[in-house]
Amino acid sequence: MTNAPPPPSTAAQSARTILTRLHEVMASRTNAQGKLNQVVGIIGECLHSEVCSIYLLRGGTLELYATRGLNQDAVHVTRLALGEGLVGTIAQQIETLNLDEAAAHPDFSYRPETGEELFHSFAGVPIIRREQAVGVLCVQQSDPRRYEEIEIETLQTVAMVLSELIANADLVDTTARIDAAAADQSAQRLTGQKLVDGMGAGIAVFHQPRITIEHTVADDIEAERHRVYAAFDKMREQIDRMASQAEFGIGGEHEEVLETYKMFAYDEGWSRRINEAIDSGLTAEAAIERVQQRTRMRMRQIDDPLLRDRMHDLEDLSNRLIRIVSGQMGTAAQMGLRHDSILIARNLGPAELLEYDRRRLKGVVLEEGSLTAHVIIVARAMGVPVLGRARAVRTAVREGDLLLLDAGAGTLHVRPTQAVQDAFDAKLELSQKRRASLAALRDLPAVTRDGVPIELMINAGLREDIAALDLTGAGGIGLFRTEFQFLVSATLPQRERQQRLYRDVLDAAGDRPVVFRTVDIGGDKSLPYMNVDENALEENPAMGWRALRLALDREGLLKVQARALMEAAAGRTLNVMFPMVSEPWEYEAARDLFVRQRAWLKQHDKKLPAAIRYGAMLEVPGLIETLDLMLPHLDFLSIGTNDLTQFLFAADRAHPRLAERYDWLSPTVMRYIARVVKIVADSKVQLGVCGEMGGRPLEAMALLGVGIERLSITPAGVGRVKAMIRSLDLGALRADIPAILAHPSSTPRAQYLDWAKAHGVDLGE
């Protein structure tokens, strides 16, 4: 953080004016209701807003506590449940709303006693205490307009000060709810999302205590600024020290993760936003929390999990910085783990995980988290199982509780009974035996009982994934997702850096083939360092400007990658695959670009691949209608079941209500794939499937039944799928598949399960 702060912004000056007046109100002897009445008057006046209202959470509902502009008779009468109306939505989602026409919003709920029908514009922000919404501050205007960003920032800053006022006056009831939940001593079973597979038992250890900011308004702005300067210096020293001491035994993508994390720590934009919050009149702690709250709200608005995870790194750094500046540095890592432990946290950064003793750390449970987070990359390298999205885990679990974590099953047992402990121990023993038996298959071929060889490959995207080739005995890498290097990097990876990664992958694979998929970015996987118009946000990013569409428009990006791939594969065969091809001309354009880059490299006396094989991913259903035109120009084709399935059903695979609604074994999916197999059969094109579907034994069996003989799957699935293959009579299955497809039942999965059981197929269950 620089020592020469920029002049206060207009937003900071506006907020400071309001905070100065609010400080006087808070210091007065007026009762809480009187103070809130004065607050809405000050905010409405300073923002030139006809309406300003404060809703507080009481008894589980949001109660109108003070207003300027609405009917005074509605005060303490109008109540909204969490999630009800605009105010309830803001509190439930902990998000900001800014609408030029409030009534047009689908969550709008009209309350006639307020007289709000006169007002069109609406903006509201949550009032947050201990990471929970305890109320809502909102403004309204009769003219339809969106409030300026400056006004929204001012409201968010004021909401922080209101949080302190409300807490000091005991106007909200969140503490009672937290204490009641914590008082529960019964055994519980929590569920979540598997982030890193594995099982572990230990006592509950909270990563860090809650830090509640008691003072939000600064007495001396310059003193607060210098406190933050000192905290930034100390934090950066800590990060540098941890990054230099991190050891995993082998190099891996986690090293790039830590370098990216360091770049965030030194980011001037982040420090500038904290400086601006101090300019508005906040204390150092409140300024950091103010920026952190804004980051959290942005995270909730980002559809792409990879970008959300980059924001989680800033969240981790904010937590570290606020602990330093407040003098509350104690974490479980610094105090040391004395027993086998399961770590509990809302979220966790990669550097913070590295502080823990790996001999004692048996697992991590997060309230948030996702598969693509930086901390998950590091946890996987450390061999620590992680369960994410475990809602309310920090209120259901007490420090010192016995926990049994089964990340693979997505469960956490809290204060388990003896019967549950015995079952857990038995499963752990069976799991260890099963892993040993699957490991014994590593060097055996993936051949069916009737002698049909199946090509079993793995999907990868990180340097560390390459080790899975030898661990699983896979025949190669059927899908290397090159965009991972772009998504974990804070800047666009240069050609030399790309080339180094691709060469390392090819060297590690040896004689085994590697299929490199060109970058699949854009849409909801936008890169922060790409100059994309922020106003051009897409309502359906999965079907938007992404993958090959983006790469062909940003031709320079694809040219650099083409050269990096060719130079890395010098003297070897290069397999390159283009994602999300919608029409033949897109594939031809991408292939021609590679051909031109090969000619350019040859002209400049660069070493070239011995051969280049070109392929496409079939993810867009409509491509099947022009496959006959593409086949003469293709070397291989890979069916991407993840995107293909969501497009076939018009169902977002990330939507929680739709995730389990449509089955991969549905006749819609299976008939489509069977049709592709039939179209490709008479050509020389190599056909395969990549995606989660092929990594599940029952689904993989069905794919083999319709004619697929090449699977590229997650490394964790190789052992189970190989066991299935070696137990399968493929001829018998293919003889019965036409009848299953022609006469599907209402539960098609049961049809395949019944067939597998009747024929002794090993599904690992």
Automatic annotation (TrEMBL):
Q: Which reaction does it catalyse?
A: L-histidyl-[protein] + phosphoenolpyruvate = N(pros)-phospho-L-histidyl-[protein] + pyruvate
Q: Name one GO biological process term.
A: phosphoenolpyruvate-dependent sugar phosphotransferase system
Q: Residues in domain GAF?
A: 31-176
Question: Where does the record place a coiled coil?
Answer: none
Q: In terms of domain of life, where is this protein from?
A: Bacteria
Q: Which InterPro entries match?
A: GAF, GAF-like_dom_sf, PEP-util_enz_mobile_dom, PEP-utilizing_PTS_enzyme, PEP_util_C, PEP_util_CS, Phosphohistidine_dom_sf, PTS_EI-like
Cofactor dependence:
Mg(2+)
- Listed GO MF terms: kinase activity; metal ion binding; phosphoenolpyruvate-protein phosphotransferase activity
Principal localisation: cytoplasm
- GO annotation, cellular component aspect: cytoplasm
- According to the UniProt entry, what is the EC number of this protein? 2.7.3.9
**Where, per UniProt, does this protein localize?**
Cytoplasm
Going by the UniProt record, its keywords in alphabetical order are: Cytoplasm, Kinase, Magnesium, Metal-binding, Phosphotransferase system, Sugar transport, Transferase, Transport
Q: Which family does it belong to?
A: Belongs to the PEP-utilizing enzyme family.
Entry-linked PANTHER family: PHOSPHOENOLPYRUVATE-PROTEIN PHOSPHOTRANSFERASE
Q: What is this protein called?
A: phosphoenolpyruvate--protein phosphotransferase
Q: Which organism is it from?
A: Sphingopyxis granuli
